[in-house]
Amino acid sequence: MTAESGTARRPMLAALPRFSQQINRVLTWVVVGLFVVWVVGNFINAPKQFVSVFLLGVTLGSIYALVALGYTLVYGIIELINFAHGDVFMWGSMIAVTVSAHWLGLDGSQGWYVTAPLIFVTLLACIAFCGTLNVAIERLAYRPLRNAPKLAPLITAIGMSFILQNAGALVYGFIEQPVPDIFPTKPLFRIGGIAYTQKSLLIVLITIPVLLALVYLVRSTRQGKAMRAVAQDMDASRMMGIDVDRTIAFTFALGGALAGAAGLLFVMYQTSTRYDLGFQLGLFAFTAAVLGGIGNLTGAAFGALLIGLIQAFNEGLSWHTPGSSWTQSVIFSILILVLVFRPQGLLGEAVSDRA
Amino acid sequence: MAGDLLTARAVRKEFGGLVACSDVDFTVPQGGIVSLIGPNGAGKTTFFNMLTGVYTPTSGEVTFDGHEVVGLPPHAVTQLGVGRTFQNIRLFPTMTGLENVLVGMHARLKGGIFRSILRTPGLRREEREAADRARELLRYCGLPREAEHTYAMNLSYGDQRRLEVARALGTEPKLLLLDEPTAGMNPQESAEFTSFVGRMRDERGLSILMIEHDMKVVMGISERVTVLDHGEKIAEGTPGEIQKDERVIEAYLGSAATADNGDGGLLE
Amino acid sequence: MSGRTGALGDAWARLPKRVRALALPVTVLLLVVLYPNYYQDVFNALGGGVTGQLAPTVPTMVVMCVYVIMALGLNVVVGYAGLLDLGYVAFYAAGAYIAGWFATLQFAPHKVHFLSVGVLPVLPGLHVNVWLLLIVGAVFATILGIIIGLPTLRLRGDYLAIVTLGFGEIIPQAVNNGDDWFGHNVTNGPNGLTPIDSLGFGVTIHKTFSFLPSSYRLEINSADYYYWTGVALVLFTLFCCIRLRDSRLGRAWVAIREDEIAAAAMGVPLMRTKTWAYAIGAFFGGAAGCFYAIFKSSTFPQDFSLNISIAVLCMVILGGMGNVWGVCLGGAVLAYLNYQGLEAVGNNLNHYAGTNLNIPQYTFGIFGIIIVAMMLIRPQGLIPTARRKIELEAGVEGGSLYDAAA
C-alpha cells in the first residue's frame, strides 16, 4: 500500500488495497510452490542424502522449537520481542557444560545408569538457572517499562542481550567451551554413508514430551488460562482478580526453562558452545516463531521444524542451494518476507483479535 | 443528486463474521448539518471510519465531492476536503496548540525538503502566513491566547475539544465530521458549542456531519438525523420526525425515556 | 559566561543580544576546529605517557565526526519520526562500498578516471572524484533506504525493528560473499577493498591556493585535513537536521510519532513522510560510511556488523532522542570510548592498579549497560528535548493505523 498521492483523483489508487491483498495471496503461494519444487528437486537429485539431511534438520528444528516457544510465549503475553532470550539460551548451554562436565565429571565413559540421572540433574540445573535469570531480567529491565512507549522495552531488550553476552564472555572467556560426547553416539542406522546417531534421536525424543506438556499447561491448567487472559487484556484480567505481574513472571520463567533445556540439548548435540552464539540462534528461533504465527504455540513448533529443515537443506544439499555461507541471509529473508507479506504467519489467522 | 456533498451507497463492513455496518445509504447535502445517532455499538464510529478512509468498506461506495473515496488512504480523503475530530480526543499531546493546527494544515502547505533546508524566502512567507492563519483559527474556536504556546496535553478538557476542531479546520475541509464533540461538556458549554457549529457552517460554508449523544445538541441544530442500530439504518428524517419514530424509541428503550425529557437525552 | 568583575560584566551586557547569543557556539566551534593545534598540549597537560592516552588523538576525532554524522542521521529516523531502525549499518555499508568501487583498483583491467584528484593518471581501475563520491555514496544509500523502506515502513514499530535488523544482517553477509556473485568478484569478499583514493583538491587548485593540499594523504598532518573535512560534514548535517526539525516535514514526523491515526486524519501521508525520514537518515549514513572508508582507505565486510547499528542507536539514546545537541554529545562520547577511551582507561588501570583487564573486549557489554540504564533511569537522554521528556514520562503512545485497519 504505497500511499503516494498528491491529488486523490486516481482510480488506480482506490483499487490498491484489494489488489495488493490479491498479490499477497498469489505471492505467498508462488513462494510456497517454489519451496516445494526446490525440496522435491533435491529429493530426486540425491534421495539418500536428502533423507539424512532431513533427519538432521528435524533434530535442529527440535532445538529451535524449544527456543522459539520462549519467544512466542513472551510475545504472546506482553508483545515484546525479547532479544535477550537467545542469550538466556546461551547461558543454558554454558551451565550445562559447567554442571555436566566440570562438576559431575561426565565424559561419556560412564554407563547409561550413571549418565541418565546425572544428565537429568544437569537439566534441572539449567532449567532452574535460566528460568530464574529470565524472571530476573523481566523484573529488573522490562517491568518498570510496562507503561512506557512500546519501543522502550524493545531497546532495553537489545541492551540486555549485549549485557548477557558479555557477561558470558567474562565468565567463560571468548573461546569455544568444549564438552565431551556425553550422549550416546552409536549410529542407529546409515543412509548414504551418513550415520544417524542415538543422540540425534534422543534430542527429538526429549523435545516432544516437553512440547506436549507445554501445550497442556497453557491450554488446560489454571495458570495457563490466566496467561491467556492476560494476553487478551491485561486490565480486564487484573479486574477479574488475576495477579498480572505473577502471571507474566511465570511466563518468563517458563520461557527461560525451555531455553535452559534447549541449551543443554544443543551443547550435548554440538559438543561445544560460545558466548556469542545466542544472539543469532535466537534470531533464527524468532524467525521460526514469526513463520508459524507469533503467539501461536503449535505454530512456533511447526515454524521451528521448518527453519531447522531449511537450514539443514541449505547446508547439506546440493541442488540449487546457496550453501552455508548464505544461511543467515536465507533465514532473514524468510523473516522479512513473512513479516511484510504475511505477518500473521503460516498458521496464524487474522491478527486483529488482539489489538 | 446534485446538491449532495457526500453520498454513501449500500456501505457494508464486516469484521470476521460480525456485520458492523449493514448496507447503509446516507447523504450529506451541501451546506447541511446532519447528525448520526444510535445506541452504543450501533456502528456509528465504524461508519465514520469508512467515510474517512481508516477502514475500507467490505462493499458499497462512498462519493465525496465527485470523487470515489473507498480505498483511498485517510490522508488522501482529508486532502479532498474531509476534516474530522475524534471521539476520544487524539491531539498530538506534546505539540503546542499552534503546532497542532499547523499539522492540520499539512496538506495545504507546500514546503518541501530542499526548500525547508534552504529556508527560501517563499517558504518563510508560507510558514509565516500559515502560522497567522493557525492563530486566527485558534481564536475563532475560542481558545485562549496562551493555548498557542501550551502543549496540548496541558490544556483544559474543553480547550482540547476546541483545539480538535481548530486542527480539523486547519485541513480546510468542505465537510467537517465531528465525533461526539460535546462529550464531557457541561450543559452551558454544550449550548455554546451548538451555536458555534451553526456559526461555522454559516461563516465558513462548511457542511457538517456529527455523531452526538446529547439530544439537545442534536435536535437543536440538525437539519436531518439518521439513526443507526446494530449496524442498520432504522430511521432518517427531520429531528421532529425522529423524535416520534416508533423504531427509534424502541431502539433506545431500556436505556432511557424519550427524546423530549431534556438534557440527559436518549442515552444517558 | 559573563566576566566576573563588574566592568567586564557591564561591557558584556552592553553587547548586542545577537552577539551574546553567538558567543558560546562560536567559542565551542573554535575549540573544536583548532583541536589539532592544541592536541599536544592536552596530551602534555594530562601528564603524557599512559594518562596522555586519554586525550583523543586527531584520528580518533575523525572517527568521532563520522559517528556523530551517523548518529544525527539515525536521530532523524528514531528521534524525529519514532521509527526504530536496527539495520542502520546497511546504509553505512552502501556509502563505504561506493567509495570502494569507484576509487580503487577493484575493477583494474578497466581504467576510467573522472575528475579524479590526487591520483596518478596512469593508475588502472575506476577513479571518480572522491568529493563527488561522497555525494554519490549518500544518494546511493538514500535510494537503498527508499527501496528497503517502501515495503517495510507500513509495518508496526517492533516488526519494523526486526525487519531492519534482518536487512542489517543480510547486507554484510551478501558483501562478504560478494567475491563470487554468480562468478563475478564484485566486493572482493572478506579481503575488502583497499586502497581507496584520498580526499584532496588536485594539483591545479593546490598551485593557486597552497593551503589546499592536492591529496590529504601526501601531507604530513593528513589526519588534520580529514578532521577539518569531518567537522565541516558534521556542521552540514547539523544544519540540515535543525532546519528539517523546524519544518513542515519535521512537524509531520512528530505528529506521526505521537499518533499515527490522528496524523493521517489531518492529511499527513504516512508512507511518504516515513519514507522521507528513512531516506534522510540513510543519506547521512551513506555519507558517513563513504567518508570513513576514504579516511581509512579501505572497507571490509567486518566493518558492518550489527554492533555498529546498536552502537549508533546507543549514541542517540544516550544523548537524548530527538535533540541534535544531545545526539552530537552522545555520538562523540561513545565513539571516543569505542575507539580510544576504553582502551586508554584499561591501560591506565592496568598500569597504575596493576590489573590485567582487556576492557575494549567488553565495549558492547558496556554499551548494553548504558542502553538499559538510560532506558530505566533517564529515558529522555542526557540532553532531552522538552517534548520527548514528557512523552517518555507520561507514556504517550499512538497506535498504528494499520493495526486498526487490519
A few lines on this structure:
With 268 residues, chain B is of the alpha/beta class. Chain B contains ten helices and ten strands. Chain C has one domain: ABC transporter involved in vitamin B12 uptake, BtuC, CATH 1.10.3470.
Describe the overall structure.
- The complex is a heterotrimer of chains A (355), B (268) and C (406).
- Chain A has a domain at 59-275.
- Chain A has twelve helices and four strands, in the order H-H-H-H-H-E-E-E-H-H-H-H-E-H-H-H.
- Chain A has helices at residues 11-45, 47-78, 85-103, 112-142, 151-172, 198-220, 222-232, 234-239, 244-270, 277-292, 297-316, 327-341, and strands at residues 177-178, 187-191, 194-197, 272-273.
- In chain A, strand 2 and strand 3 form a beta hairpin.
- In chain A, helix 7 packs across helix 9.
- The longest helix of chain A is centred in the first third of the chain and has 35 residues, at 11-45.
- By secondary structure, chain B is an alpha/beta fold.
- Chain B has two domains: 1-69 and 174-268, Rossmann fold (3-Layer(aba) Sandwich); 82-172, P-loop containing nucleotide triphosphate hydrolases (Rossmann fold, 3-Layer(aba) Sandwich).
- Helix content of chain B is 38%, strand content 23%.
- Chain B contains ten helices and ten strands.
- Chain B has helices at 44-51, 74-80, 97-104, 113-118, 121-140, 157-170, 187-204, 215-221, 239-244, 246-252, and strands at 4-15, 18-29, 33-37, 59-64, 67-68, 82-84, 175-179, 207-211, 224-229, 232-237.
- In chain B, the strands form two sheets. A six-stranded mixed beta sheet of chain B has the order 6-7-8-3-9-10, sandwiched between helices. In chain B, strands 2-1-4-5 form a four-stranded antiparallel beta sheet, covered by helices on one side.
- In chain B, strand 1 and strand 2 (18-29) form a beta hairpin.
- In chain B, helix 3 (97-104) packs across helix 5 (121-140) and helix 5 packs across helix 6 (157-170).
- The longest helix of chain B is centred in the middle third of the chain and has 20 residues, at 121-140.
- The two termini of chain B are 36 Å apart.
- Mean pLDDT of chain B is 87; it is low at 256-268.
- By secondary structure, chain C is an all-alpha fold.
- Chain C contains 18 helices and three strands.
- Chain C has helices at residues 6-14, 17-33, 35-45, 49-52, 58-80, 89-102, 130-152, 157-176, 202-208, 222-245, 248-258, 260-265, 270-296, 306-319, 324-353, 363-377, 386-394, 401-405, and strands spanning 103-104, 111-114, 125-128.
- Chain C has a three-stranded mixed beta sheet.
- The longest helix of chain C is centred in the last third of the chain and has 30 residues, at 324-353.
- Chain C is globular, with a radius of gyration of 23 Å.
- The interface between A and C is large, with 52 and 55 residues.
